[in-house]
Design goal:
Length: 338
Amino acid sequence: MDAKIALFGYGNVGASFLKILKDKKDFLKKNFNLTYKVIAIFEFDGALIKADGIDLELLLNKGDKYKELPFWKKDIIFTSYLLRDLGINTCIEATPTNPDTGEPALSHIITALNNGIDVIASNKGPFYLQYDKIKNLAEKNNCFVKYEATVASGVPALSIKKNLIGNKITQIKAILNGTCNYILSRMTAEGIPFEIALREAQELGIAEADPTLDIEGWDAAGKLVILANELLESSKSIKDVEVRGITSITPQAIDLAKSDGFVIKHLAIAEDNNLIVAPRLIDRNSPLNISGTLNVIELKTDFAGPIVLMGRGAGGFEAASAILNDLIDIANKKGSTK
């Protein structure tokens, strides 16, 4: 496969992906017969465009001064005509999530699929808002659409399904937001109130300046929708999730739980066509009792028993590794159909 790539979003995830792509160029060619050119990188105020391929080492060495490069085009408008004119066959969508509309990522994805272009995404918004529409468009236009990085970055939360093909997954229990888990871990370990734990998380760069989507549960809810739709074959959107955050949890409640052998965790649960994100008591010896910013996903299956996946659910290189895995998977599938 010769991937002609357009990347949307040159932030932490996008830059990390390009670094991995550069470092693994020979590995990809040797092991997967996968070659590539990054032809376009779209940002909100313009784009880097080079029809014969962008020199990734040159680009990465420029750091945040990449707009000084001669092939930076200010205020260029993204259109389907531009994708076709450049011969793009793979779009990587790595812009920040818009939780309300999914834009502009949703339009990027729809435009690509309508033009027969494969899509790989780390932006979860479009998938928890318009999952069915995206999947149907991909099928209609005979395209691949992959989105492993949308749920837990480098943790293979979605691709695990192909390794459980003989099993029915009946339940998902997960911790999907590192900010909430860090705050609750600190409250449990130190007995400090929520406000202090949140401030500490913000000072460490774990929590956003505006942490609302995290601490009120909406980030985890979006990820749960994607998990449930993929693994349980549901057809849900974020409006179908019952959501409660962690802002009302007190040190007293945590101490009471500890005295009975439990901990309070912010769980995302999908079972019997119901989706809920809320604080829950779990046994302190449960595999779901993880600390810090880690994510964990426990799947209940009919024959394989419980399956537990754990790892870092955020980070540039973690998400980038999932994007690369999706690209390799597409290359393998296209190679097998020749």
